[in-house]
Amino acid sequence: MLSLLVPLAILGLIAWGIVGVTRRGGDPFTLATATALYARVVWIAGILTSLSGLGIILKACFGYINLAYSYFQPVAYAGAYPPGVPVAPLVDQSNFYEQQRSQDLVLGITLLVIGVLVAGVHLFLGRAVARMPGGSPAWIVRGTLLGITVMTAVVGIPSAAAGLYEVLSYFIVGTSPQNQQPWGESLGLAIAFLPAWIYAMTRLVDDLRRPHVGATTP
Length: 218
Known about the structure:
Elements: H1 5-22, H2 31-65, H3 67-70, H4 94-130, H5 138-173, H6 184-208
Helix pairs in contact: 1-5, 2-4, 2-5, 2-6, 5-6
């Protein structure tokens, strides 16, 4: 799901720029306008980075509860061979999965911290230029809410559907190790992105119900 964010962000940024050029509604385009656009674009990037980090942390946490929840486990395949056929001994890969779990935890914490710092700095920058002439036009403010709503929905909704399916399959359908697929990654991303999507969508609807008046921050 996370692989969709980069191409979608590029397309969204292009569309956002076209809207800004063609439908500014008479708002002046100043240095504050360009700064406001930059601040909100990077603010969205910081939010998505932090949410991705939180999802990876949750995946690792599920793995600490049970390694099979988030990572593939070795399965017994000796029964698939006829009697008398020599079978190579199974290789214990638990150390590999434990290392991968630790790496995911470190990666998730790194992304979360960096994302929060980037989002916080650019939130402050957006508020600083919002009171300047051209520093808070409607096409940037509402574009920010629309952008974060779309981006969180693209990850959150499919992850929730995949996570629910994988959890039910793991505990209900999967009666053997071969049928039990890990679900920690999908469920972790869903827990991280769905609340953000719901909050952003609520803010977007509230903002669309009232006319744009003056400075509004992301």
